[in-house]
Amino acid sequence: MASQKDSTTIDRLDECAQAINVAKIRADFPILGTAHRGKPLVYLDNAATSQTPRQVVDSIQDYYYTKNANVHRGVHHLSQVATDVYESSRNKIAQFIGAHVGCEIIFTKGTTEAINLVAQTYGRKHIGKGDEILVSHMEHHSNIVPWQMLCEETGGTLKVVPIDDHGDMIMEEFDTLLSERTKLVSIVHVSNALGTVNPVEEIIEKAHALGVPVLLDGAQSAAHMPVDVKALDVDFYACSAHKMYGPTGMGILYGKATLLEEMPPFHGGGDMILSVTFEKTVFNTLPYKFEAGTPHIAGVVALGATVDYLNTIGMDKIAAYEAALLDYGTQALQQVEGVKLIGTAKNKAGVLSFTMESAHPHDIGQILDDHGVAIRTGHHCAQPVMQHFGVAATARASLAMYNTREEIDALIVALEDVNKVFA
User: Whole-model pTM?
Assistant: First the structure.
């Protein structure tokens, strides 16, 4: 019988589930009604890629069937229609994350390209020999490697804020490392490997006190909580559509207009120019100087539809439901023999990383797959995190708004089978 604490958790979870109508949401995702190995699919790999609702898929079909044309360049009707829906999506995502104006939104292939854009434009211009870039020990490789490459090129130095054994950034160390030599702070908003939600308000305030700009890797935050870049006063924010129920190969970089204006273009080509001669090129205005060539128009349209879909549900409600689901999942995992949670920060979102005494994470993943339960195993493109915790890999169940208490229960049943197989 469940304890009183467990009963309270369940009651809160059920109340939050009714508030967002999880059953209705699940009906929008046809893949969630499929089976794997004769068992209902339980998809718990959302930190890697979330599933896509039919409304977003329909928007792609509608674009190709009724609006397909290149944008910004044509005077004919279809080109104007395509341009309108393309720019409408830009304005939608700007409003979704609280940007001042649409021109502060740059369309990219995803978070990785967005971070590389900042590294190769802002970074090259402002990072020199002896300058420092500050990251944390919990970063995804996409927020480490571009800065390493930049430092090798410019003579800059990458400084790393350590984390404790709960997976929290040690803010006293951040205070020590942040100095007049720091030229940029680039920090993950929510850790993909641990689920830690970093104190970004405090980080930004402290960095700005020294005149240091801040980039937030929002790959794991955009779909799980309200984000307001204006209220945060963050300088750059990057996220990926495929982690927020949208299409693959699509993402955005938000940047303050004052910073974007002074940054050189990332790619050269069509649409990012005002005029070209063999003697001189005049670059286009924001945001177009960063969007060379024919863009992923269908992806942009679909991202606009994704934002519409999330807005109909409400990010506050989504965050509340996922927090309740995370609490339930945490309690359930702690009752499985031999399970050790990796990442126990006080403020977490959507990630349950763990190891088991009886089996290697890859074996865990295989047994769970036999049960129709999809999780991620490995280092999660966060090898420094694994090194900190002294493990080669973890098993990671990552949550989304369409996951349910029953799916957590299915995960637990599968993990108990892991113990039986490898006991």
Answer: 0.96
